[in-house]
Amino acid sequence: MKRFEYKARDSKTGKIVKGAIQAENERTAGKLLIEQGFTPEKITEEEEGGLFARFSSKIKNKDKNVFTRQFATLIGAGLPLSNSLRVVAEQTESKPMRKVIEALLADVEAGRTLTEAAQKYPDIFNNLYIALLRAGEASGTLDLSLVRLADQSEKDDKMMSDIRGALTYPAIILVVIIAVLVFMVVVVVPQVQGLYEDLGKELPGATAFLVMVSNFIIEKWYIVLISVAVAVWFLIQFAKTDVGKRWGAIMKLNVPLFKGLFLRLYNSRFARTCQNLLSTGVSIQDSLKISGEAIGNMIVQEQIEIVMEKIKQGKPFSDSIKDRSYILPLIPQMASIGEQSGKIDEMLGKAATVYENELDEQIRTISTLIEPILMVVMALLIGFIVIAVLMPIYAIVSDVQSG
Q1: Phi–psi pair at 47, nearest 5 degrees
Q2: What is the pTM of this model?
Q3: 17 - beta bridge partners?
Q4: Domains 61-125 and 146-403 share a fold
């Protein structure tokens, strides 16, 4: 599918409108516009602009969040849907996001609902977004649905940003460790080897091993680089497969130190998504389905699917989700209270808040613990190299003194 920018006249109002449309070719784009009630005046195919342009055209979550928040404000102020989209499009700095908004505007002005227009962009507007849009349009509370979407997306972005931030410093330390090890093996160890060769002595076992590694890296450096590149490529490709995704999901849920962090992340995301969907009138089955997809871990998602089956059999939500693997105890407890009070969405929201707060504390704890662990690892590795380097020097000094 190609993307075309167009200038056309609305057959009903006579107004000139501009926007973008996707079609196989220019002729098909013209037919689509006519079907929507427009008389095309100008249709031009967008240029790809090369690799950099394709990379830069990716819409960031931040741009989508800004659009959602601004759109909610305008809708809440009483502006018509099309006028709100037009104003937001004019204010949007991101060119890729502006093109999407203009396409939404064109579809809305052609008589489609906002939900139908947004469904054309599944990579931007996921199932949660579409479900809340549909519920908001049906209930006349579109502004509230948009606010919920913006709030949840911003919270989710903040949690992921905090996790990445907590791992940034340890990652830098790890890079420094590798750099120091490579320097000592490539620069320091060969000097010790040369010293022993001049004296005609045999290297100790540990030193001989380091010399072997050093010689291989120096002489076969291209093999090392190719091997690393192939390994990285293989891991990236493997992570995209179903087996790789499952392996990654299991690893996140069972790796020591990080297990608690990911459990709280997934549970808070599940509870918050369920709260937002249920509060807008989405059915429990649809809420669970969309929430399971939003979690981002296929193992936990499979547990949610089991819960859905139990609910179909007539069991209450709180009983169905109780004792599920990877579902923390507070969620079924709060769900039970919510079922009794008729406020299950509010109770799930409180559970989400608890886990979000615990996640913040978990991130700080991991950030504090992982640094000394890496420092100990660095000390052990460098200590081994230093001992392997000093052993032959100490042996030489002993021989000189005894001689």
Answers
A1: -85, 140
A2: 0.70
A3: 8
A4: yes
